[in-house]
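Journal club side-thread
Mid-discussion, someone asked how the predicted structure for our own chain would compare to the paper's figures. Pasting it here so we can look after the session.
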Amino acid sequence: MDENIRNAGEDHPEAVPAEAPAPQAPAVAAPEPISTAEAVTGTFLSPGGTFKRIVERHWTFVAVPLVLIMIFNVVSVVLMRNRVDMKQLVRDQIRQSRFADQLSDAQIEEAAEREASRPAAFTAVFACLFLVVTVLFLAALFWLVLLAFGFDINFKRSLLAVGFAMLPMVVAAVLFVVILFIKDPNSIDIQNAVATNPAAFLDREATAKPLYVLLQSLDLFKAWMIFLLSVGLAAAARSRVAPAATAVVVLYLVWIGVRMALAAIF
């Protein structure tokens, strides 16, 4: 009898209770996409956190900075053509160019007449197209450079970073319009109207061309955009700011060197 009970116990060992499933962490809700107003104001006020949200938006979000820049550029172009003597402006620009010695006075006057009669809409459309091409080119360039060095970046994020990094152009356009109304329009150096670089304070004719190009490149607005490009591309590549800044600064220095070389040759 005892043996039977003992055998029965061996055949039916005490059941081990199953472990309770580990509690799962609550799902973290994805952050809401950044709004247009937040993206624009944040680019100026808190670019670090703002660019991290901007680069996660759809690629079409790049239209926000581009449209803003185009609007202010068109306004500044139209006002400039209405307030500035375009014939004299073109004459001065041709005489300061490397082609001046190759043109007669009659040819310079013909070019000035042609430019002055050109509709403002043509200049505005050209400026808008140039902006789009520039942003696309820079986005592709930085994407390929950072990708070549092993960073996790795609063209969409690079495009958004570059587009919003151009927003200081809006501020430059506003200042240009203000200057058109507070100064004699015909006394303004169109290439250095806002005077944010050392070249604006030099006599172009008396300064060596390579030096003038170098000083013209040391511009406050360009420095601002280089900073925003560095922060934006770091967010796009999910990296620290230093590597992105290195890529931006090195490529800008190469561009300055090319411009200085061309100025020295021609």
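Post-session note: The longest helix spans residues 120-148.
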